[in-house]
Amino acid sequence: MTLTPTVTEEEAATKERRDIARLIAWGTWLTEFKMSNPDATEAERKASWEAVRSDRMKGGFRALESLERGNFKVVPAE
């Protein structure tokens, strides 16, 4: 018997917002990183992302909130 965890609508929305903020944070950071470090290896990229991830996630949430305040709704494609 397989148990399927019950996810509330609110939990799903929170995860969705986190995923969108992560994509915003990752995309903006990666562009800057590649411009500054064109010869960086994958390991260097991963280590650098882990070092700045929490700060960049805050920026991703701020960007998402700014869009929402401007009456935009960002939703993942189906």
Q: What features would you describe in this structure?
A:
- With 78 residues, the chain is mainly alpha-helical.
- It has one domain (14-69).
- It has helices spanning 9-36, 42-69.
- The mean pLDDT is 91.
Structural class: mainly alpha
DSSP strand tally: 0
Q: Radius of gyration from the CA trace?
A: 16 Å
Distance from N terminus to C terminus (CA atoms, Å) equals: 29 Å
Tell me the domain tally. Answer: 1
Helix tally? 2
Query: What kind of oligomer do you see?
Result: single chain
Which terms summarize this structure?
72% helix, 0% strand, 2 helices, mainly alpha, 78 residues
Give a short synopsis of this structure.
By secondary structure, the chain is an all-alpha fold.
Write the layout of secondary structure elements.
Blueprint: H1 9-36, H2 42-69
Helix pairs in contact: 1-2
